[in-house]
Amino acid sequence: MSVTTVVGIQWGDEGKGRIVDYLASQAEMVIRFQGGDNAGHTVINDLGKFGLHIIPSGVFNSETMNIVGAGTVVNFDTMASEIDHIQSVSGRSVDNVFIDRRAHLIMPYHQLLDGAEEGKRSDDQKIGTTKRGIGPCYSDKASRVGLRAGDILDEDWLRKRLELLLPKKNRDLEYYGLRTFTVDELVAKCAAWRERFGSYIIDSQPVVREAVENGRNILLEGQLGIMRDNDWGIYPYSTSSNPTTAGACNGAGIPPRAIDKVVGVIKAYSTSVGGGPYMTELFDEDGEKLRTIGGEFGVTTGRPRRCGWLDLVAADYACYMNGVSDLALTKLDVLDSFEKIRVCTGYMIDGEYYNHLPDTLYQERAKPIYEDFEGWMCDTSKCRRWEELPAKAQSYILEIEKRLGVHITYISVGPERDQLIVR
Ligand code: GDP
Ligand code: IMO
Ligand code: MG
């Protein structure tokens, strides 16, 4: 296996957690490389059902070292409740999760500002953030006024950093009529975090390098999908980091040439949560049916997900940009009762035909062009081998494979760990 990256190649919620959980059973190390607790990765295995936010999906294998990587943003309060929850449901103690000292801290003011900034946006400009403080935290990182996990290990340094940055933060909070913070109060909060997590904050670079150089099985877990990438997604309706293979190298500290395999996770249809263009969105009964059968409600916010058909133009862009070597097609079973299944193969924008993905403002005006497939109209959830899939489902999969030019190695037919066909 050596170094494998798992990336979302749509708008998020493709089933990354489910695929990482499966692959992690053979991994010695799992690294979450970007994002924060805006993630909602569902894992169902023999220990129970879990909605993971910041904890890497390899946590269930006690032998696997899980690292919350340098490229992430961490809220230690939500991390504590998440670990408590995993421990109480699984009945196992969690002591295999480490945090790189370079990971940025989501502070209470980041969450408050996220909510306030979103509140000020007009309806047509709303990003629909998860209000977890992700944008404000990454902004501070880029402005070099962020706090990092390692900073809480040195109280004098932490205090100096807070004295530098807090006056401006408080002015921002006052502007929105929000509560302000004192240095002492935040130093005390960080001391409580140090008490609980101090011994798990590490410099992961030498550890990861040693693992790479010794050919160990390492899995890099992405959050969200490229369509909400800060550079290559639907900016400004994006997240504030890069959930791509390039982002994985940076956020996990892995040289690009060390990556052996890139698994792109793709739903057999599509969904999106939050604002921004989404060209194949359905507003009819098919959309409602996808939402109901697919259980398409956010893990982190509970919001109903926008649902639509598979967009092969966007998927092709995503495969190229991520250098995807293998696809994991999830939720095939959700299409079991559709008589007609559509895929988007191009767009019309301002009277012109497009077979490539344009930037955000053009996407807003895009009208999808569809090709239709006959549905297979039978249950696939019990299939475990390629030969057991109905012929029409095989054709659907082979056509996607042909058009994207990437082998579909994994086909998921249910949320549970064993509901998977490996080709
Ligand atoms: P992630 O954020 O990419 O990890 O995906 P989410 O966990 O947010 O959303 C995927 C949802 O689909 C979860 O509720 C999973 O339990 C569920 N799921 C994953 N794979 C399958 C599948 O093959 N079939 C069905 N029916 N559900 C699936
Ligand atoms: P997983 O990891 C789906 C969306 C939000 C919003 C935009 C920016 O489960 O795939 P943010 O809080 O990051 O500033 O929000 O991105 N978003 C997600 N959508 N799945 C997620 O995570 C998401 N994380 C953020 O809805 O539009
Ligand atoms: Mg999710």
From TrEMBL:
Pfam families: Adenylsucc_synt
Catalytic activity: IMP + L-aspartate + GTP = N(6)-(1,2-dicarboxyethyl)-AMP + GDP + phosphate + 2 H(+)
Pathway(s) served: Purine metabolism; AMP biosynthesis via de novo pathway; AMP from IMP: step 1/2
Single GO term (MF): adenylosuccinate synthase activity
Record-listed IMP binding positions: D13, E14, G15, K16, N38, A39, G40, H41, T130, R144, T239, R303
Sequence similarity: Belongs to the adenylosuccinate synthetase family.
Protein name per UniProt: Adenylosuccinate synthetase
Source organism (scientific name): Candidatus Aphodenecus pullistercoris
